[in-house]
Structures are given as structure tokens and as C-alpha cells.
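pls ignore typos typing on phone
guanosine-5'-diphosphate + seq
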Amino acid sequence: MNSCVIIGAQWGDEGKGKVVDLFTEAADLVVRFQGGNNAGHTLVVDGPEGPEKTVLHLIPSGILHAEKTNIIASGVVVDPEVLLGELEELAERGRPVPHERLRISRDAHVILPWHRALDLAREAARGESRIGTTGRGIGPTYEDRVARRGVRLRDLLDEERLRERLEQVLPERNALLAHLGAETFDLEDMVRHGLAFGERLAPWLDDCGAILENARRRGQRILLEGAQGTLLDIGHGTYPFVTSSHTISGGACVGAGLPPSAIGGVVGIAKAYCTRVGSGPFPTELEDADGDTLRANGHEFGATTGRPRRCGWFDVPAMRFAHRVNGFTGLAITKLDVLTGFSRVRICTAYVVDGERVDVADPDGTVLERAVPVYEDLPGWSEDITGAQTLDDLPPHARGLLDRIAELTGIPVDLVSVGPNRAQTIVLTRPFGA
Ligand code: GDP
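k done
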């Protein structure tokens, strides 16, 4: 199994960072294939005065491992300012990134200042019905890409080409911005701005498809790290409360330019409960003391916004749907420790929608909104599990929950996370099946 995709199996924030970090150790290449700087990895780096926290939004976390090649593939939308900012921050912390360790697809689309302005202006105009976008211009950039009027990184290297691209898109975007009462942008300013970024980014740009092909030929291990989660997929999630890219395993092929036959493992990351940020249906949501306990114990507050996340019990119908679209070869169950102390733990095993029992979620917003969870109650545990290294170290009821999740979803559990640190992990199947 030379290529492995890591996918958020729920609504994002599943704790992918830690699992990606574990898998990265065993990989030769780490690839981001979708999304933009709306993802975030908190990494602890040893600095001159002890461990320091660094948050990377765009650069794969493999950058902190000296010998790995990191790839930002063409499915990602790149904000040059954010990217250069991350590179500078790493350099300031004594971790300069050599060009050969970070390769960026020339075909990745560029987030430009008006994309951010448009994102913010539109979200403000939506008022109550806002979709909770991060305002980083990611949606508008994907929109321009699909409309065939986007600007790719390679366009920033050629003045004539860039001006031509901008002449096509900017007047229309400016008209919309003016209509929304937002600032507009000057074409010549944008050309200058784009070329300046192009010059700085040129040494990192590459044909990433060719790099991946060579790596495969040499039998190297490729880790493809997904951002956000399955139920936020543009085509298969709870539309319209979704992100603007394909977050499912097939998205890894599309976004990285890898054939489906190249993918060996598909590991779904899922919390032992569920959370969701922003609006949209969420059948197992708890608006009671149990929800507050999950939020407090799991520190379920947005990393950048501090917004409380909505919390609820583990949702099997949603996981069965996630399995259908991703074809998981294994699950990594995270944050099991957060359930410690509950006298009983619930799992949603099915929904009732309009009087009918449903075993697999239909993520359509209006259907999911009407889904009433059917719960199975399992006995809880109160023992501290944060030091568990094997399944035998877990109390029987914690093991019982894992067994039940595997049984009801039909997906084997490969890994269990019992705390935020790397050592707080029970590895049942080694990364890449090694
Ligand atoms: P991502 O958005 O899916 O990449 O999620 P993150 O990697 O940002 O993880 C969310 C938070 O959960 C981070 O602060 C992690 O340190 C924390 N975390 C990850 N796994 C566990 C776990 O098993 N237990 C606890 N208590 N925290 C965890």
C-alpha cells in the first residue's frame, strides 16, 4: 500500500492533524489536494526557548520532518500572501524550507485580494442565512476556476498572460463588489501585485503530477491529507452547508492528479462523538448538559474564531454514508478520552425520517433536518484512559464502544487516540499497512 488518503469522516475538526503527523513519519511524500488556508494544523516545534506552537494553514505538516517532500497539488487554492507568510514564519523559527522540500503545482489557482473581499461582502449580505465561510476567498476562487476565468500560479510568471486573465475577470468582479458596497480593485495594481508574488513563488512551482509519478515508480509512500470533512464535500455533503471542494477520497485523485488505482488505503478520521461548526443540519446535536460537557472536555471551540462548536453523539448513519462515498479501509477514532466520566454513552444507530427507519444518512439538508436519531445506550467509564497504549489498557466499556462502532459501521478500527499528544495513541494497524 504505497498511497494512503486521510479523510475527515464527519464535519471536519476530527483531529486529522495528529493522525497525519503519525502517518507522515512513515511517508516519503505528503500531499495537500484540496481546500486552501481554511485548514489548520497546530504543530509543536522545538525552538531556542523550548517548544513553540506553529499553525500551518497551507503547507503540509511533513515540512517539519527533514527528509519528506511536501506537495501542494493543483486541487488546492493558494493565497500567496499566506503561503509566503508561513514560509517566513518557519524560517524565523530556524526551519527554513529548502525549495526541493516544498513543491507547488503550477496549476493551482490563486486566491486574489478581490476573492477575499467578495467572500466577506457576500457573507455580510447574507445576514441570518450566512453559511459560516471563513472569509478567506476560497469559495470565490473555486468559483472562478469552474467558470474558467481563474488565475493559476503559472499565470503569475507571465505579464501578458496575467493581464489577459485579469482583463477577463476583474471588471465583472468589480461590478459585483460595487453592488455589494465593497471596495473595488485596479487592474494595473493587480497585475503588479500578481507578478511580484509570481517572482517570489517561482522557485517552488513545479509539475507535481510528474513528481508523484516518479515517486510511485520508485515505490515511495505517498500520504494524501484531506482537509475539512466528508459531510462538507461540495458534491456529497449537506449542500448548501458545504465547503467548495471535494473532501472525499476520490477528491484526492482529482486534486493531486493521481489515478484511482494508485490509492491503497483510505483512513477515515472520526471523533468518538460528533461536532459541527456553523450552520447546517446535525441530527445528533445536543443542546443540553451532555453537549456542554462534550464541548468543555473536548475543547470544542473554533481554533481561529473561538466560536463554540456544536456537539452531539456519534452518528452511525452519517458514518455509513461516509463509508459509502470514501470506501474506508480503516477508521481512526479520536478523542475517546473526552467521553470519560459519562455514566452512559449514546450512539445513534439509525434515524427515523417521516416515520420511516433510515440506516444510511441522506445528507440533503432538508432530509437530514427531519432525521430523528434512534439511540443505543452503552455503559460509560470513569477511569482515566489518557495513558492507554493498547486495547487491553482500556476499560471494558470503552472497548465496548469501539467494538460497537466497528460492528455498526462495518469498518475496522485502525487507530484510537486517547489524548492530544502523539504518544497517546493506540495503533492497531500500522500506517501504510507496514
Ligand atoms: P483537524 O481540523 O481535523 O486537523 O483537527 P485538529 O488536528 O486541529 O485537532 C483538533 C484538536 O483536538 C487539537 O487541539 C488536538 O490537539 C486535539 N486532539 C486530537 N486528538 C485528540 C484526542 O484523542 N484527545 C484529545 N483530548 N484531544 C485531541
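The chain is about 30% helix and 20% strand. Residues 3-101+207-433 form a domain with the Adenylosuccinate Synthetase; Chain A, domain 3 fold (CATH 3.90.170.10). more later
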